[in-house]
Write a structure and sequence with these properties.
- The protein is α+β, with helices and mostly antiparallel strands.
- The chain is built from 19 helices and 34 strands.
- About 5% of the residues have low confidence.
Length: about 850
């Protein structure tokens, strides 16, 4: 009778074979048939390969479960092939051929198999009987005195947590409330990832989100309780679905030291009753690690410490990996210890405080209280006896494996030999996995640095550079970071930017760092540990807790124990400072931090150091650019009039737009100023080029015009003297187009103007009837010839007339091969009849901006003057 079924279809692609293998493996493991998974996966792989690769058709895979067997059917859509005959072995394929081995393997591995043909497809099926599992003891430990049994609470609590298909908590039982301090209402609807402390290096292991999608999963991680403390737990996950078909994951959690309540014991192959066959030679690595072995380094190391602990019946186990120079050991995996805060911590091998002197040879410590500090990892853990052995590859120290117990005198040389034998079997696999991880990290580091360099080179804005520095480090390199900047050698470091991967903690972290003295700006390269934030956070949390209990000063209105403890947890791990050095000067510090009980691994610190060098140069470039921009903008403002005077009887409006991101000084300018009672001077000009030389001519022109006009010189005399002054600048001189005029408002409502147009676009006059005409004649520009014979033209603006003056940035506005030109400007001006001077200027600017889609490439200045009409 069929009790369960699962089906899937795979496209005729090469990668479908791997997908089919995963489908069958997950299905059988979900059904609890791990004993036959390997044979089923091998057979499925061969049959699906025949279908999708050799036959070139889609493959349908159907898994059927009965009470005592599993049947798997693989169908393709190519039925016209030759039917294999049992009497003709050649048709079943040769083992040396790429294809055709599927039927041979079925004959060798399956209990029953066959081939069925229909008009639309061909089906190969095989059946694997389930082995009989003897009833009786599955796993047992020695009888222990009561004082050596694990200590628990009043009763062992098993937290039952259900996770919905979106990863959010949907059920939370009373034991979970007791273990972690949250009531169900506080956690329901929130992602489990908000509370889980997942023990893996990013990018190199399965994450908790991935684990929750598996049909079954079992292992260790941590849960942050309501006080921010990480509680190590052992978990068993089972993926289920409800009657509506919606999947969810049921998680059973116990404290890690009570893992025996949930941990599934290892099952070895059960021989058939009465079988007397010769046992197959077992691979020592597979015997110790189990099959299949984890593919990633973290999984392999964690499996190693768990197997080592179980093999010697220990309370804890740990594994450290050596650095390339064999001078330090880095903690990479542990089990049974109070916390995982030592992960990635380093201890010296040969000399120095806290040295790990027993790394190179097997060692048994019968009582650590007699030799305190012999194994730094076990300080303050309650472990009394320990056995440690080295991991070596070709005589080189690659790591150290240890098993510890809470009772003294638990281990002897016999256990050391057993552990050393296991270590020798796994050392090469561990080193190979470590080298593979290092290669992946190095490739990732190169990609990271290339991307970081591109991002940092893409901006010269100081604030954006600070933000990029922080965003590139969090969460890739650290949980939180802070950037201190130093304006000059006499200035103190200033906290410029703070970022945490949890945005809700940024304000608390910023407030904490503001109360802590900044780190010393030491130019020494490399990361150095900074304990001030962690110490300050813990002190603040302690004071807040005491006030909350009524043991200290009353709590302030804004203080909350939850916020304080959250901040303490956020900065409770390792904090390091990297100097930002550019052009032989410390311009700031980059601070990276981890949450409680976490350390940085050396590869991450080396990557952060590379990043800090690039970031320092980018930050200094942004500083220099900002200083230059401030000077440029200040000079630009000084070259333009601070304000326009009110001219009686005349409306005046000016619009000035500098082109380009830098808005360099120079270029166009304008001015309107009183000469004497009843007389006003106005000018609009354009200096050739930009930069300091153009700015010098601009400043010279604007100030000379005011000075000469107020001395009583007429328009031609003013421009002739200005021309001489420009030529006196020599090589620094620039030619200048200039429209200069004098304006006299009249009692009858009109205005008299005297204008000199020296090489500048001609001013346009708009009459009340809508006609537009040039209002002056062109004359030579300034800064080219010594002797100029300029003359002025006198015209009258009647009530309602408008005089429009622009620079060539307006008339030369381009869109491809089209240019606005004088005619286009005149056409726009004809639509401005009856508008005020401000409205005229605004309409002209809108027309210029809409003429082309690209940003303007030249400065633009618009000066509009209007004599109000009689109806205004």
């Amino acid at each position: 009778m069929i009790t369960a079924r699962a089906a899937a279809t795979f496209e005729p692609l090469g990668r479908s074979v791997a997908t089919a293998r995963s489908f069958v493996r997950d299905t059988l493991q979900g059904w609890g048939f791990s004993d036959i998974v390997d044979d089923a996966v091998v057979l499925t792989s061969e049959l699906v390969t025949n279908a999708v690769v050799h036959a070139g058709t889609a493959a349908d895979v159907l898994c059927l479960r009965t009470e005592d067997a599993v049947r798997i059917e693989v169908s393709d859509h190519y039925p016209e092939r030759e039917i294999p005959l049992q009497s003709s072995p050649a048709t079943m394929g040769s083992p040396d051929r790429e294809g055709g081995r599927g039927l041979q393997l079925c004959a060798a591995l399956a209990t029953r198999w066959g081939v069925d043909y229909t008009s639309t497809h061909k089906q190969v099926w095989f059946q694997l009987d389930l082995p009989d599992r003897p009833v009786g003891t599955r796993a047992a430990g020695p009888a222990l005195p009561a004082d050596l049994l694990p200590i628990t609470d009043g009763r062992v609590r098993v937290a039952v947590v259900q996770i919905d298909r979106a990863g959010a908590i949907s059920a939370w039982n009373e034991d979970a409330e007791e273990l972690f301090g949250y009531v169900a209402e506080q956690v329901t609807g929130k992602p489990l990832t908000d509370f889980a402390a997942w023990p893996h290096t990013p990018g190199t292991s399965t994450g908790i989100a991935d684990a929750l999608q598996l049909s079954r999963w079992e292992g260790s991680y941590g849960i942050r309780d309501s006080g921010g403390r990480v509680i190590p737990v052992y978990a068993s996950h089972l993926r289920v679905r409800d009657t509506d078909g919606d999947p969810s994951t049921v998680c059973l959690l116990v404290r890690d030291d009570e893992r025996a309540v949930l941990q599934t014991p290892l099952r070895g192959p059960s021989p058939e009753p009465g079988a007397l066959s010769e046992p197959r030679a077992a691979d020592p690595f597979e015997v110790f690690i189990g099959s299949p072995a984890p593919e990633d380094l973290d999984g392999l190391l964690q499996r190693t410490v768990e197997r080592a602990r179980d093999m010697l019946d220990g309370d804890a186990a740990f594994l450290l990996l050596a650095t390339d120079d064999e001078t330090e050991l880095e903690v990479r995996a542990s089990t049974g210890l109070p916390s995982a805060r030592q992960r990635f911590a380093r201890v010296p091998v040969e000399a120095g405080p806290g040295r790990y002197g027993s790394a190179r040879l097997p060692a048994v410590h019968e009582d650590l209280t007699v030799v305190p500090g012999a194994v730094p990892l076990l300080n303050s853990t309650g472990m009394r006896s320990v056995v440690t052995v080295p991991l070596k590859v070709e005589g080189r120290l690659t790591g150290s494996l240890g098993v510890a117990a809470e009772a003294p005198d638990r281990y002897s040389n016999e256990e050391a030999l057993r552990l050393q034998f296991a270590a020798d079997r796994i050392a090469l696999a561990v080193e190979s996995a470590r080298l593979g991880e290092l290669e992946r990290l190095r490739r990732g580091s190169l990609s990271f640095l290339v991307e970081a360099s591109d991002l940092l080179a893409g901006t010269l804005d100081r604030d954006q550079t600070l933000a990029l520095m922080a965003q590139m480090t969090v969460p890739t390199l650290a949980t939180w970071c802070a950037v201190y900047t130093i304006a000059d050698q006499a200035s103190e470091p200033y906290l410029s930017y703070v970022l945490h991967e949890d945005e809700d903690r940024i304000d608390g972290l910023k407030a904490l760092l503001a109360k802590v003295a900044p780190p010393d700006p030491v130019p020494t390269p490399g990361a150095r540990v900074w304990t001030s934030p962690s110490d300050a956070a813990h002190q603040a949390a302690l004071r807040t807790s005491m006030r909350n209990l009524g043991l200290g000063e009353p709590m302030s209105a804004g203080a909350g124990i939850g916020t304080t403890l959250s901040t303490a947890s956020a900065v409770g791990g390792e904090t390091v400072v990297l100097p930002l050095v550019a052009r032989n000067r410390v311009i700031g510090m980059l601070v990276l931090g981890k949450p409680s009980d976490e350390h940085f691994r050396q590869e991450i610190l080396e990557l952060a150091e590379d990043l800090s060098r690039r970031a320092a140069l980018a930050l200094d470039n942004a500083r220099l650019y900002s200083e230059r921009m401030a000077i440029s903008q200040s000079l630009q403002r000084s070259l333009l009039p601070p304000g326009l005077p009110q001219v009686p009887g005349v409306e005046v409006e000016v619009i000035y737009r500098a082109a380009g991101e830098g808005n360099e000084v120079g270029g166009d300018f304008y001015d309107l100023f009183p000469i004497r009672d009843g007389a006003y001077g106005f000018a609009i000009g354009d200096v050739c080029g930009t930069g300091p030389e153009a700015a010098a001519v601009t400043g010279l022109a604007r100030h000379a015009l005011r000075l000469l006009a107020r001395e009583g010189f007429g328009g031609p005399a003013v421009l002739e003297r200005l021309n001489a002054a420009i030529l006196d600048e020599g090589a620094r001189s620039r030619f200048l187009t200039l429209l200069y005029g004098e304006l006299w408002p009249q009692e009858d409502g009109s205005a008299v103007l005297k204008i000199v147009c020296a090489g500048h676009p001609l001013p346009l006059r708009l009459r009340q009837d809508g006609t537009v005409e040039p209002y002056a004649e062109p004359q030579p520009l300034l800064g080219v010839m010594d002797d100029l014979e300029l003359y002025e033209q006198t015209v009258t603006l009647d009530p309602g007339d408008v005089l429009l003056c622009v620079t060539d940035g307006v008339t030369e506005r381009r869109e491809g091969t089209r240019m606005l030109g004088d005619d286009g400007l005149a056409d726009v001006l004809t639509t401005c009849t009856g508008l005020t001077a401000g409205a005229v200027a605004a309409r002209i600017m809108r027309a210029v901006e809409r003429f082309a889609s690209d940003a303007p490439s030249d400065d633009m200045a618009i000066l509009a003057m209007r004599v109000p009409g009689l109806d205004d």
